[in-house]
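Entry, Tuesday afternoon. Goal for today is a structural model of the target with zinc ion bound, before we commit to ordering more compound. Inputs were pasted exactly as handed over by J.K., no edits. I checked the ligand SMILES twice against the vendor sheet because last time a stereocentre got dropped in transcription.
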Amino acid sequence: MSTAFLHHRDCILHDMGAGHPESPQRIMAIEDHLLATGLLQHLAEYESPPATLEQLSRVHDRSYVDTIAAGSPQHGVVHLDPDTAMNPHSYQAALRSAGAVVMATDLVIGAKAENAFCNVRPPGHHACRHQAMGFCFFNNIAVGAAHALDHHGLKRVAIADFDVHHGNGTEDIFHDDPRVMMVSTFQHPFYPYSGIEGRSSRMVNVPLAAYSSGEQFRNAVTAHWLPALEAFRPQMLFISAGFDAHRDDDMAMLGLVDADYAWVTQQLKDIAHRHSEGRIVSSLEGGYELGALARSVGRHVRVLAGL
Ligand SMILES: [Zn+2]
């Protein structure tokens, strides 16, 4: 079985304006890198379908989904908050991004793929049950996790989030759901200034001070994530794969390097092999320095694919 690679052209057409760091070039740089390094030929490519209202409504209020559906302008760009804006393609891109994680979940649970990476945008982990923020509209990874639980009947899933920002939306959606564990690392104090108050045995949020190194990141994962995941025994593992903790990324001030992303992916793969029949679905979150982003995703995907 191979690693699935999900994408859709609509995710390139979503554009929040010239100079916005969450740009279409991000997923193009990733795909170019995977093509140029020969990695792409080892992956099984799929065009992602749009998520359905039923799938989105598992983690978002129906009225919120309706608001986003009505939000895409006929032309130009409209802002939902200072960072988050819609153009005429944004709603479709948001549907395809969440739909990618749903399809990836079906492929992996249905044993059509060993694991999957969704090269999609807009990202999702700041999207709350009824609020868009931080470049995010629908919480893609949460939509996929809820699909694994409610449609496929899994009893326990875990979400690992190594984006430099805390996944406040994912916490908002799942903090009261005993079927879901979230493990995360993030720069703190830093946007969105959450992740400390909500900590619990299932919300394993590990703050890292500005200028923390890759070694400190690895120590946090080893000390906090891995024992929690071993005890929880998730039946499937989801990854909110943000690459903005890279030392080349100006968005934040952590010091990870390409090899740290390969390392953490291998740790998660080992957990998945012990407890989850190897089932992993990873979806792109942040990562804004195009070279570091493309290389780091390459390392992540290479480990997923066992290459
Ligand atoms: Zn981020």
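Residues 181 and 202 are 5 Å apart (CA to CA).
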